[in-house]
Amino acid sequence: MSDVSFVRTEMLPEQAPPASEVGAIGWIRHNLFSGWFNSILTLVSLYAIWYVLSGVLPWIFQSVWNANSLNECREIMIATWGSTHGHACWAVINDRWLQLLFGFYPSHLYWRPIVSLILLLVALAPVLYSDRVPSKMLIVTAIYPFLMPFLMWGGTIWGPIAAALGFVVGWGVYTLVSKRLSGLFGMVAGVAASVIWWLVLSSYFVGALDSILPIGIEAVQSRQFGGFMLAILLGVVAIGVSLPIGIVLALGRQSDLMIVKYLCVGFIEFIRGVPLITLLFVASLLLNLFLPPGTNFDIILRVMIMMTLFSAAYMAEVIRGGLAALPRGQYEGADSLGLNYWQAQRLIIMPQALKISIPGIVSTFIGIFKDTTLVSIIGLFDVIGLASAIRADTAWNGIYWELFAFIAALFFVVCFSMSRYSMYLERKLQTGHH
Amino acid sequence: MTTLTDPPKEQFRLSMLLYDTRYRSATIQVIALIGFMLLAAWIISNTIQNLEGLGKPIEFGFFAESASYDINQRLLEYNSQDSHLRAAFIGLLNTLVVAVLGCITATIVGVFVGVLRLSNNWLIARIMTVYVEIFRNVPVLLWIVLAMAILIEGLPAPNAFRGDNPTATMDLFNTVAVTNRGVYIPEFLFSRSLGDIHLFGTSSIRFDISLDLIAFLIVLGGSIFTMRKVSAWAAAKQESTGDRPKIWHIQLGILFVPMIILLAALGFHLGYPELKGFNFRGGTHMRNSLIALWMALSLYTAAFIAEIVRAGILAISKGQTEAAAALGMRQGRIMRLVILPQALRVIIPPMISNYLNLTKNSSLAIAVGYMDITGTLGGITMNQTGRELECVLLLMLVYLAISLSISAVMNWYNNRVKLVER
After folding, report:
1. Helix, strand or coil for residue B17?
2. Scanning every residue of chain A, which has its alpha carbon at the shortest distance from the alpha carbon of B49?
3. In terms of residue numbers, what domain contains A38?
4. How far apart are CA A377 and CA A385, in angstroms?
5. Are residues B404 and A273, on separate chains, in Cβ contact within 8 Å?
């Protein structure tokens, strides 16, 4: 017997995987050329990308930035590149970007919408990033709803203060009455007091104080509002107000109270069944008919009301989905702790239901923000309305790609950030175990 | 020892309406109802007062008056002497046309994009993601207006097709003319036509149905019925003998032969558009407004449908595919018998709500001048007659009726495919 072993006694040294399976080459083989069909798809998409980019990149970068009309633009293009085809005329944006952003807002007052926007971000920070921003900043958030209209519309400072005082009055009456009688009475009395203050007393208050202490800034008319600023204004108001109304409607729809439930169902289904444009027709043509003769309030306010109602109905359905997805045990658990209806909603049900419905809520936000462009149809000069006006101008007659690309980019940035934020929030609030 | 006695019967006190949960819900509901009725009464009385002040009480007589405006894109015959009601009806049909066309295209594009987003190919999945994000994050109104601008400014005028060296030529073997006044496509003509039947006499919803179309549908229905019989026969044979007879060529024959015979008997031919004078004649003229609206709505909605399809396919666990494969099913059957029935249950409800959105978004037609119901009833009719209240309320009712019917279909379908649980 010789000493030949049939089993290898020493280990072979580890070898690097074949170059075709790892690294960039391996990745390309797996993801782009994993079969004949995949390879064809890759080649076709590469061609498509090249085709699009070879058209778009020169169009964007070999472009004219300074000109006063489309014809001048074309002359410069012919002088520089020999043809007008495939070159953008960004001069129209250079010429009109302030108008596209601010509409006909007086140019010496541009600081006001800008400050409003910055304050909006400051006010949103403690809400959106509650773990990183100190909660004391919430004071800014509370003040903002009164500060923003003052900055945007200007006029006397006593108007917003009177509006804010309405809440103080309501709160005061509520605490007074609920101490003497019950909480329910206090609630009703508080709301009634606020409404009386806003509808009847506040105008005297503003008038009196304005004649004594006329503090204020230059007023701006609603018809001067426009551009992307209008979209943000309408979007922020509709989004901010529709969330609480949507929650109330969703609770109403889920409630055991038959009449309340059917009122909510009727409202939600009616609003969801008609296009927003018909509601905007109501805002621009009919809302004044529904109010006491002689009332004529601001068109932007009317549009805000209808857009808020519209978005609230969609919000209610999204939140109802969240409520329905919650296991029955959560409701029963809250009951067994002896919580009453509102305590259970506030402490147990809503935090979970809202968390489940975050994607739906944010996509409703994005939807309503995009839908603000519809106001151009009832004659407000938002970005799309201004784009039509610019295209009708003799200097820029015939231009469209540049204008719409600019507007699309504005909306894309805002909407895309909103959708990314919702993904971040979902990850942050993820408490399940995976 | 204590003895249990019934608690004393409580007398009903007024305060129990507030403090006793048994009565409180009734109190709240009564207050809510009274509040709602007061609000409604207030609004109605204000409206009546306002309308009296304006001197136009609510009445619908104006619908019988002559509309005296033209609708250039229409399915049925209409002229400017017809009534406002007829115009609204034509508009309603136009809404339905663009909604149906849009839903079909959006579904095709959306399913295609949604499936490709799940592709193993990294590049194609990214391209489709870019498509979805771009279309979802930009307002649909912008897409509609942009599509209209491209069609008007970017396409050749009809006179570019003229002359010996035309700068533009017709597409698809000289059958389709794409111009900045719209697209001209071949129309179906019958040289031995059976004629039309006229329905509803001279009322405003009168319309004609082509007997050729009815004959075609009858033949098609008959063919499909026979095909189902044949496949039932094949299935029965498979059950009894284990061999499935080859039937696909029989099926094709049953489907196409009677159809071709009928079309030949009716003298079917295509009418091509031709350049005559300043414009194209013949063929079917699809206006720019229709095409812009159709394209923009379908591409926009397709981005949403793509996400739904993707989510639906991802919702079916991989175990289902593997189990089906373990049973020896082939790829196509796994898709048809295992994956799709489950995925469709997830996909269909949000898909229908997107169809609903597309239908409602079609009201943006007014931005490009397509005469749908918003353009006729809520546009020119309203402006001409000054009857805002009546027109807007009717417009809302029409859309509400459309939405509620689509919702009814959705609920019916949901109940049909619902998992039966005990």
Report:
1. helix
2. A293
3. 24-61
4. 8
5. yes
Task: Give the DSSP H or E segment for B288.
Answer: helix B288-315
Provide the whole-model pTM.
Answer: 0.88
For residue A268, the domain's CATH number is 1.10.3720.10
Cβ atoms of A353 and A360 within 8 Å: the answer is no
The pLDDT confidence band at residue A365, using thresholds 50, 70 and 90, is very high
Give the closest-approach CA distance of B238 to chain A in angstroms: 35
> Is B46 close to A408, i.e. CB distance below 8 A?
no
Rounded to whole angstroms, the Cα distance separating A334 from B241 reads 63
Specify whether A404 is located in the same domain as A414.
yes
Q: What is the DSSP letter of B362?
A: G
Say whether both A250 and A293 belong to one domain: yes
Distance between CA A142 and CA A124 in Å, rounded?
10
Tens-digit pLDDT profile for residues A84-111: 788 888 999 988 899 999 989 998 989 9
**Residue among A32, A48, A282 minimizing CB distance to B121:** A32
HSE-up of residue A434 (Cα within 13 Å, Cβ side): 4
- Domain end, chosen from A8, A37, A61, is at A61
CA atoms of B110 and A214, how far apart (whole Å)? 59
Structure tokens at B348: 């269909």
**Is B133 near chain A, with CB under 8 Å?**
yes
CATH 3.30.70.260 fits B84-186+272-417, yes or no: no
Are residue A209 and residue A234 in the same domain, yes or no?
no
| Structure-block tokens of residue A71 | 């014809």
Note the pLDDT tens digit of each residue in A251-291: 999 888 888 999 999 999 999 999 999 999 999 988 888 88
CA distance A257 to chain B (A): 6
Whether A373 maps to a domain, the answer reads yes
Would the CB atoms of B145 and A388 count as touching at under 8 Å?
yes
Is residue A233 domain-shared with residue A326, that is, in the same domain? yes
Question: CATH 1.10.3720.10 spans which residues of chain B?
Answer: 84-186+272-417
Q: Does B85 touch chain A (CB under 8 A)?
A: no
Report the amino acid identity of residue B1: M
- Give the chain B residue whose CA is nearest to the CA of A398: B153
Look up tokens 């058209």; give the residue. Answer: A55
Is there a domain that residue A298 lies in? yes
Contact residues, chain A, for B403 at CB < 8 Å: 272-274
Q: How far, in Å, are A59, A191, B16 from residue B24 at the CA level?
A: 69, 19, 7
One domain for residues A279 and A401: yes
Half-sphere exposure of B257 (CA within 13 A, CB side): 8
- pLDDT tens profile A143-178: 888 888 888 888 888 888 888 888 888 899 888 888
ipTM: 0.89
* Chain B: closest CA distance from residue A4 (Å): 46
Counted residue by residue, chain B has a size of 422
